[in-house]
Amino acid sequence: ILPNSIEYIFEYCFNCCAQKLNEVTIGENFIKFLNTSDTSRKNTASGLFGLCYQLKTVNWNAINCEDFTSQSYSPFTSDSMGITSPITTVTFGDKVKNIPGSLFWKCSNLTGTIEIPESCERIGDRAFQACHGVNSFKIHAKTPPRIEPSDGPSFTSSDGKNAVFRYFDTSWKVMNTTIYVPSESINLYKTDSNWGIYSNIIKG
Questions:
Q1: CA–CA separation, 18 and 88 (whole Å)
Q2: Alpha-carbon torsion 44, 152, 157, 201, what sign?
Q3: SS3 for 189?
Q4: Is 20:9 a contact under the CB 8 Å cutoff?
Q5: Closest CA to 5 of 26, 29, 35, 21
Q6: Residue 26's closest CA among 71, 51, 72, 57?
Q7: CA separation (Å) from 94 to 60, 98, 140?
Q8: Which of 10-14, 36-40, 67-71, 109-113 has the lowest mean pLDDT?
Q9: Tens digit of each residue's pLDDT (9 = 90 or more) over 56-70
Q10: Distance between CA atoms of 16 and 53, rounded to whole angstroms?
Q11: How many C-beta atoms lie closer than 10 Å to residue 67's C-beta?
């Protein structure tokens, strides 16, 4: 459990917790993971939780964590090493305003429903890209959260659209999931310039 007082963590901090760590709770004031060789960098994720083979549950309470900038990692994957994230469950705290770009990119073992709190104002690109096991996303925000490009290299999809709920397989495709939004906000979501590409899977 990382308390609310923690704002920064250096990468590789949990690199050797491979066999024992099964649940992580991130505190409200967490901002970013720092690269050991360059503390001026934006969020990096290389080697942080990616080798924690038993990590099943993530409780994310960070209110305004920065986007992740690595092209190969979210904090919970080691994709370039051929390691699939073991995470199956994610919860968001009710104060979260920003879901960082690439936060759960390629976490393909996530299952069930992921609930995004009413407090959410922004979702960074690729936050849930290729999370194929998620049956549905339940978004409680009545105003569609902004979907914005992540602050990192090569994070614009080749077709110029966001990949928050998409994946690439010879072309960009929408994931086989359902996005539930407040019934009074369906039209707001479906006509939003960024949410509109998911209109076929948005329901009240």
A1: 16
A2: positive
A3: helix
A4: no
A5: 29
A6: 57
A7: 10, 11, 10
A8: 36-40
A9: 999 999 999 988 865
A10: 10
A11: 24
What SS3 class is residue 114? strand
With tokens 């099943």, the residue in question is: 56
| Contact (CB, 8 A) for 68 and 92 | no
82 residue type, one letter:
G
What is the identity of the amino acid at 160? G
Tokens encoding 194: 């960024």
User: Tokens 């923690």 correspond to what residue?
Assistant: 6
Q: Where are the beta strands (DSSP E) in the chain?
A: 8-10, 23-26, 32-34, 57-60, 89-92, 98-99, 112-116, 122-124, 134-139, 146-148, 166-168, 172-174, 178-180, 202-203
